[in-house]
C-alpha cells in the first residue's frame, strides 16, 4: 500500500516538473509521518517490523532448523518481511543512482572534525569511510579484526536483545513495549561509550 502511494507520488512529481524536490534530502516532517503510516498499517494487519528477524528466516530456509530449535518455525509466515529487505535494497539502489543530486551527507562540523582527528578523511563525502570498508583496510589484520568482532557483537546483541534497532526503536516503541524502550536506551548508552571511549582506543 505504502509503496503504491510513493510510486504514484513519484509519477505525479515527474508530470509536474517537481523532480528537484524529490532530489533534495527529505525533512523529518515528511519521512517521519511516512514511517508512522507504515507502522500504522503493520499494527492494523497484526505484523511486527524488524530487519534482524529476516536473518532468522533466511537461516531457517537454509536448513538451520536441523541444528538448532531456534530456527524451527513456520518461515512462510514471515515471507512478507523478506520483501522489506528486498525493498530496502532496491530502494537504496534507486535513491543513490537515480534520485540523488550528489549532495554530501549533512553532518555537524564538530562531528567531522572529531572523526578527521581519528584519521577518517572522507567523512561527509561517502556513506561508509574508506578507512574501514575499503578492500585494502578490510584485508589488513586490524581491519579484518574490526569487521569480525563488530559483526559478532551485532549478531550476539541482536539475538540477546530480541531485536535490532529497527525492530525495537521503530516497531517496538510504536507498540509501547517496555523491553523495546529499555533496548533503545541501551543502544544510546552503547553508542556514547563507543564514541567517547572505545573509538579513540581503536583509531
List keywords for this structure.
mainly alpha, 203 residues, single chain
Average pLDDT for all residues: 83
Shape: globular
Topology as H/E string? HHHHHHHHHHH
Helix content: 55-70%
Rounded to an integer in angstroms, the radius of gyration calculated over CA atoms is 20 Å
Main beta sheet, described?
none
Task: Determine the N-to-C terminus distance.
Answer: 45 Å
Structural category: mainly alpha
**Number of strand segments:** 0
Low-confidence stretches: none
Number of helical elements: 11
Strand content: under 5%
Overview of the molecule:
The protein has 203 residues and is mostly helical. 68% of the residues lie in helices and 0% in strands. It contains 11 helices and no strands. The protein has helices at residues 2-15, 19-23, 28-44, 53-61, 79-98, 109-117, 130-133, 135-138, 141-161, 165-174, 178-202. Helix 10 (165-174) runs antiparallel to helix 11. The radius of gyration is 20 Å and the shape is globular. The mean pLDDT is 83.
Amino acid at each position: 500500500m505504502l509503496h503504491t502511494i510513493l510510486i504514484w507520488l513519484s509519477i505525479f512529481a515527474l508530470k509536474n516538473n517537481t523532480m528537484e524536490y524529490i532530489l533534495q534530502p527529505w525533512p523529518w516532517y515528511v519521512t517521519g509521518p511516512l514511517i508512522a503510516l507504515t507502522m500504522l498499517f503493520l499494527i492494523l494487519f497484526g505484523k511486527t517490523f524488524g530487519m534482524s528477524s529476516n536473518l532468522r528466516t533466511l537461516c531457517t530456509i537454509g536448513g538451520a532448523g536441523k541444528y538448532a530449535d531456534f530456527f524451527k518455525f513456520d518461515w512462510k509466515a514471515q515471507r512478507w518481511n523478506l520483501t522489506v529487505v528486498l525493498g530496502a535494497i532496491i530502494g537504496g539502489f534507486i535513491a543513490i543512482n537515480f534520485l540523488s543530486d550528489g549532495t554530501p551527507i549533512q553532518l555537524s562540523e564538530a562531528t567531522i572534525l572529531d572523526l578527521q582527528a581519528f584519521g577518517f578523511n572522507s567523512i561527509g563525502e561517502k556513506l561508509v569511510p574508506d578507512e574501514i570498508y575499503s578492500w585494502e583496510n578490510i584485508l589488513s589484520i586490524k581491519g579484518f579484526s574490526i569487521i569480525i568482532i563488530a559483526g559478532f557483537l551485532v549478531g550476539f546483541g541482536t539475538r540477546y536483545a530480541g531485536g535490532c534497532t529497527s525492530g525495537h526503536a521503530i516497531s517496538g516503541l510504536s507498540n509501547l513495549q517496555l523491553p523495546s524502550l529499555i533496548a533503545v536506551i541501551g543502544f544510546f548508552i552503547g553508542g556514547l561509550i563507543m564514541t567517547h571511549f572505545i573509538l579513540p582506543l581503536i583509531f
